[in-house]
Design goal:
By secondary structure, the protein is mainly α. The protein has a single domain, classed as Arc Repressor Mutant, subunit A (Orthogonal Bundle). A hairpin with a 2-residue loop joins strand 1 and strand 2.
């Protein structure tokens, strides 16, 4: 799967419910911020200009795709995430 396809699948609605409030650009920016070092959910929400609930969804999808890991210090890129 290419970069564009992966980002589009992560930004697509998965099940019935509230509409998503983030785009592929939010995912890219989140990955860029995490590349600089571990970032917490609150800081990520402020820097992206979105709510913490939306950030939780982004983090879950990035983690499920093996792009990030989560630690006490915050979220950071996996080796696959760095290559991506």
């Amino acid at each position: 799967m290419g970069i564009k396809e992966l980002l589009n699948s992560l930004a697509k609605e998965k099940a019935p419910g509230p509409a998503l409030t983030f785009t592929s650009l939010h995912l890219i920016k989140a990955l860029e911020l995490m590349a600089e070092g571990p970032v917490g959910r609150g800081k990520l929400a402020k820097m992206l200009g979105i709510g913490e609930g939306t950030v939780r969804t982004i983090i879950k999808r990035l983690k499920d795709s093996n792009l990030i890991e989560i630690s006490r210090d915050g979220c950071y890129l996996t080796s696959f995430g760095k290559e991506f």
